[in-house]
Amino acid sequence: MTLNAADEAFATRLSTLVPQDGLRPPEARYAQDPRGRREGQVGVLALPRDVHQVSTLVKAAAEARVPVLPYGGGTGLVGGQVAWDGPAPLVISLERMSAIRGVYPTENVLVAEAGAVLADVQAAAEAEDRLFPLSLAAEGSCRIGGNLSTNAGGVNVLRYGNARDLCLGLEAVLPNGEIWNGLTRLRKDNTGYDLRNLLVGAEGTLGIITAAALKLSPVPVGQGTAMIVVPSAAAALDLLAVARAIVGDGVSAFELIHRQGLEFLTEVLPDVRQPFAEPPEWCVLIELGLGAGLDPAQMLEQLFEQAAEQGLALDGVIAQSQAQRQELWTVREHIPEANRLIGSIASHDISVPISLIPDFVEEAGKRIAAKGEFRVNAFGHAGDGNLHYNIFPPKGQSRDAFKPMAGDLTRIVHDLVHQMGGSISAEHGIGRLKAADLERYGDPTKLAAMRAIKAALDPLGIMNPGAVLRA
Amino acid sequence: MTLNAADEAFATRLSTLVPQDGLRPPEARYAQDPRGRREGQVGVLALPRDVHQVSTLVKAAAEARVPVLPYGGGTGLVGGQVAWDGPAPLVISLERMSAIRGVYPTENVLVAEAGAVLADVQAAAEAEDRLFPLSLAAEGSCRIGGNLSTNAGGVNVLRYGNARDLCLGLEAVLPNGEIWNGLTRLRKDNTGYDLRNLLVGAEGTLGIITAAALKLSPVPVGQGTAMIVVPSAAAALDLLAVARAIVGDGVSAFELIHRQGLEFLTEVLPDVRQPFAEPPEWCVLIELGLGAGLDPAQMLEQLFEQAAEQGLALDGVIAQSQAQRQELWTVREHIPEANRLIGSIASHDISVPISLIPDFVEEAGKRIAAKGEFRVNAFGHAGDGNLHYNIFPPKGQSRDAFKPMAGDLTRIVHDLVHQMGGSISAEHGIGRLKAADLERYGDPTKLAAMRAIKAALDPLGIMNPGAVLRA
């Protein structure tokens, strides 16, 4: 199906259908990739105020065969929101639909419009003494519609699940412009196919999420945080098992940190205070969230003692105050920024079955080393089997000289992940950046089913063309 | 599309494709509805031993335009497994594919074939000191493939989610006979559309689940159970909030029980020992599952005291032993059997937003009473907003005289549920029994999308025709 660019004539047509202030000339910031890889295109920019305007816009785009790019906070890392090929799209930004429509503390439910910034959703829950547990680096600017469309992960997946697991219902506009009123606040609803989860993670290729009913949790009465030095990546997993034997699913975060990440901090962000004089080869940041009657610091001490006895803990710091907790998290949260300042040759968002993490780290390290001298920073959500595996040039050298090798390095990493039954996109999605890799590694039956579903729901192919599935 | 019955010629054709012992003449038990509503049909019965045989069978059915009925434990309550209309199908029973393929304690994952009985899955997890939390009345005979296909609920949804939430990956045969190898053990995998959740809850209309990777949890260190008398259904919800404020998500079950259910027990199952001399109007069964360092009985006492102070608890029994815990659960678990012995005129599996449960109970009671004298037993998973709302004749009268009113009564209940933003099928699914109601109450945009997806994945319409979506 040939699509047409969202040109001036189309803009004129739209101006007869939606309020004048809902349309704007293309703005450069909607065309930017946060990692600066490639520039996208914006034909017409629309900023609807309600679901009916979104419906009107999509119907007009369908009629004119114009591609539609749903736009949230623009923080996606795989180019799902950057139209770097095909005709210039109608960009529909949800930013004006940012209301919290309601909070229902008795039900542990919050209903937010798609344009609500994640941090605002968290704050609205907190105001009612509830927790919205989705938490990730971009939470100050990413929007909940984008979080759902990409099935965002983050640091609390271990305990609370990813964005998909936190969504009870959706309001959305399908590719034909029809509105789906699926904004239920129900915990149980077995009435037909799971359209909700089909839209969640579809990265805007099957419709536009306009609002969501979200699951809240009780705020843990006590939280405790520790950083524990472990002798190996394998020991980290054993430590997690010990922690779970003690506090059940009270472990809310379990982040693996490699020496390389700490050395990067020392190199480019020396103001970040580090807990250990010598950066250890491996350490983990563990957080507990517990109910009443338990002292998290005491539980962490018990954990540390038990782990030390079993040779799973070599050293450790247990936060004794809110300030110390924050300090430990600051270390973890600044690693991506340090990576950015150092400049990676190739970065990967992978997962493997949790028990294979140690094997993966060892084998990937070997295969990368066979290609030359590199620095590798493997870190992330070990409790979910999800590592960010980033490859950097040797100290003092610029990445530019190594960039031609990026494709080969990625192939080595992704081949190994695939071989281990893992995923080449654990939490960032496919977007445009990984569409070719999805074809390479994806199950053929699943890919065929995906294409059939796409053709069934979006026969004109107008919704975010080029993302997830290539033409 | 006209379909053909699975006749002798088709059986002969199949006998050239799969081993002889994999085919059997139609057997009556595969045609029975557990509630005895209607008899189904079995054309040919196949009992494959592996996914390749399932694939072969489905391909042959597609070629011959023969309907396929996937068969698990046969315990479904909405006729999804009973072909009571259309040509006689090829029934594919998964009972011989019942292996536990692996347990991965470090990963908290278990891989089971679709025919594994739920209780066997639970036991395999327990053998590795892990919990597979899905638990429901039929667990001794239902099979995990059916649990997933119907997105089964049960008593632990409050804490652990329904079957959908416990599934990480699937192996399945799609309607074209192709095998989808989606049996990942990954906690995070954002590689394309969520085919897993599309098959989960599709009740066998989009393919046949042949195996699943399932999520395990730590076994709670301590469990405590209490039955608490509350002054009203509204007070029950407040009690749940108090419990959560104390133990966070340590509340693993929260079941509402009405006086009518206890009176039924007295009437038809007098051997079931009841905790209260006089059956209270409302009581709740609450179960806590806690980590180390907490005494569940003590937490329940604290809860009871706090609730009593706020007027939310009038009386209560806290189990002091495993035997007493079992006794309290026995009361809850025998209510469905008592219902069956009394004989309902109409039964409903509904959910509403949790905070609306008291309004629903009151308003539904009024509307039913306006139709005549009935006994109503409303009970179930209040923490999930899910009630089983069953209507019975007055004491001493047979239901037969009232059966002609069943449709009207159901309409009254479902109309109210719909009006309150609820679901006419919370945990049992649509099957054949509720397909017309799905058309009546379902969102038109969602229904159209469902039909498009069905046509895309099953263009011949061979997979469980008549279930979920009517022709």
From TrEMBL, chains A, B:
PROSITE patterns: FAD_PCMH. Gene3D superfamilies: 3.30.465.10, 3.30.70.2190, 3.30.70.2740, Uridine Diphospho-n-acetylenolpyruvylglucosamine Reductase, domain 2, Vanillyl-alcohol Oxidase, Chain A, domain 4. The keyword Oxidoreductase applies. Residues 37-219 form the FAD-binding PCMH-type domain. Keywords: FAD, Flavoprotein, Oxidoreductase. InterPro entries: FAD-bd_oxidored_4_C, FAD-bd_PCMH, FAD-bd_PCMH-like_sf, FAD-bd_PCMH_sub1, FAD-bd_PCMH_sub2, FAD-linked_Oxase-like_C, FAD-oxidored/transferase_4, Oxid_FAD_bind_N. Residues 17-37 are annotated as: Disordered. Its EC number is 1.-.-.-. Its cofactor is FAD. GO terms for biological process: respiratory electron transport chain. SUPFAM superfamilies: FAD-binding/transporter-associated domain-like, FAD-linked oxidases, C-terminal domain. Transmembrane segments: none annotated. GO terms for molecular function: FAD binding; oxidoreductase activity. The keyword Flavoprotein applies. Residues 24-37 have a biased composition (Basic and acidic residues). It holds the Pfam family FAD_binding_4. PANTHER family: BLL6224 PROTEIN, D-2-HYDROXYGLUTARATE DEHYDROGENASE, MITOCHONDRIAL. Belongs to the FAD-binding oxidoreductase/transferase type 4 family. This is Putative FAD-linked oxidoreductase. It comes from Falsiruegeria mediterranea M17.
